From TrEMBL:
Residues 113-304 form the D-isomer specific 2-hydroxyacid dehydrogenase NAD-binding domain. Residues 5-335 form the D-isomer specific 2-hydroxyacid dehydrogenase catalytic domain. The lineage of its organism: Eukaryota, Fungi, Dikarya, Ascomycota, Pezizomycotina. The keyword Oxidoreductase applies. Belongs to the D-isomer specific 2-hydroxyacid dehydrogenase family. It comes from Delitschia confertaspora ATCC 74209. GO terms for molecular function: glyoxylate reductase (NADPH) activity; hydroxypyruvate reductase [NAD(P)H] activity; NAD binding. It comes from the Eukaryota. SUPFAM superfamilies: Formate/glycerate dehydrogenase catalytic domain-like, NAD(P)-binding Rossmann-fold domains. This is 4-phosphoerythronate dehydrogenase. PANTHER family: 2-HYDROXYACID DEHYDROGENASE-RELATED, GLYOXYLATE REDUCTASE_HYDROXYPYRUVATE REDUCTASE. Pfam families: 2-Hacid_dh, 2-Hacid_dh_C. GO terms for cellular component: cytosol.
């Protein structure tokens, strides 16, 4: 017996091979290099036992109903699952696979890149050179100077795998202290993270609340999941509480940061700068978007996990999750619904 499966993108090679080698599935696949059309997905989901999809595809009642009662598994090629209505899956006994471990290092690397670029005005510097301004801007003692990473207090909103990996990378830069806010119960969190910084000698402390993170940090790194509780967590009040010399880095999900409030904070120099891998309403960011007018804002197009090996690994992991879900076996990583 073969399981019908839908795959919403061409996968990096290793994943594609795994898919083709699985003898117990029959799959249809979207082949264009852009997110699949919704109609195509709804149509092909009918009768499918498994769907391997990207964060660009919403998993909601519409899709589950279109598929039908034989649907057993959704395998998402992502760490984030905010595109998935978990309660619908739970009520239909559908398993959900994701790829949280594959991309930890890649995303942490990007968080460091955005931190340093924001502090050292990388985007602004590049822009000036590309605009031909360097001739009018000879070397000078405070040209494009920014705050140092040495001695910084780094505050994390969310302290999961990626945030912890980011913290490890920042230690050799000589940061002074780390604070984190997590939805995990305080005591458990402490116990869980206590071994993390063995030997570094710097304090790593749970914050009382977001205010403490905003008030104390020289670098705020957003690494939490998008939930109703974290939507616009970084809004006008948060930004007004931050230090004028602090930078904000978002490598999680766009809607956690209120874009209008961020534009205003940058305009009014309430904060020093921002480095964003994600933004509300991405990818619909036209060239005249207010954020892009802010020289102190660096915006890159959701490339956190974009190193080739990571993407290969995410592909093989999501295929393994898909197959395990169909066969009733253990997934590499499964969301507990
Ligand atoms: C990327 O944002 C992911 O969730 O994998
Ligand atoms: C900078 O290039 C310096 O020589 O200080």
């Amino acid at each position: 017996r073969k399981y019908n499966v839908v795959v919403t993108r061409q996968l990096p090679e290793a994943g594609q091979i795994l898919l083709q080698d699985a003898s117990d599935i029959e799959f249809v696949q979207w082949t264009e290099d852009r997110p699949c059309d919704r109609d195509w997905l709804l149509q092909h989901a009918k009768g499918a036992s498994g769907i391997l999809l990207m964060l660009t595809e919403k998993v909601n009642e519409e899709l589950i109903n279109a598929a039908g009662p034989q649907l057993k598994v959704i395998a998402s090629f992502s760490v984030g699952t905010d595109h998935v209505d978990r309660s619908i899956l739970k009520s239909h006994n559908i398993r959900l696979g994701y790829t949280p471990t594959a991309l930890t290092d890649a995303c942490a690397d990007l968080a460091v890149m955005l931190t340093l670029m924001s502090q050292r005005r990388g985007g602004e510097s590049l822009r000036k050179v590309l605009d031909g301004q360097w001739p009018q801007m000879p070397w000078s003692p405070l040209l494009l100077a920014g705050p140092p990473i040495r001695g910084a207090t780094v505050g994390f909103l969310g302290f999961g795998r990626i945030a912890q990996a980011t913290l490890k990378r920042l230690l050799p830069f000589g940061i002074a202290r780390a604070l984190y806010l997590t939805s995990r119960p305080r005591e458990r969190a402490r116990e869980h993270y206590i071994g993390l910084l063995d030997g570094s000698g710097i304090p790593v402390e749970p914050a009382q609340d977001w205010r403490e993170v905003a008030r104390e940090s020289d670098v705020v790194i957003v690494g939490c999941a998008l939930t109703p509780q974290t939507k616009h967590l970084v809004g006008p009040e948060f930004l007004a509480t931050m230090k004028k010399r602090a930078v904000l880095v978002n490598i999680a999900r766009g809607p956690i940061v209120d874009t209008d409030a961020l534009v205003k904070a940058l305009e009014e120099e309430q904060i020093f700068g921002a480095g964003l891998d994600v933004v509300e309403n991405e990818p619909n960011i036209p060239a005249d978007h207010a954020l892009l007018k802010q020289e102190r804002c660096i915006l890159v197009p959701h490339i956190g996990s974009a190193n080739t090996e990571t993407r290969e690994q995410m592909a093989t992991e999501s295929v393994r999750n898909l197959l395990a879900g169909l066969r009733g076996e253990n997934m590499v990583n499964e969301v507990v619904l």
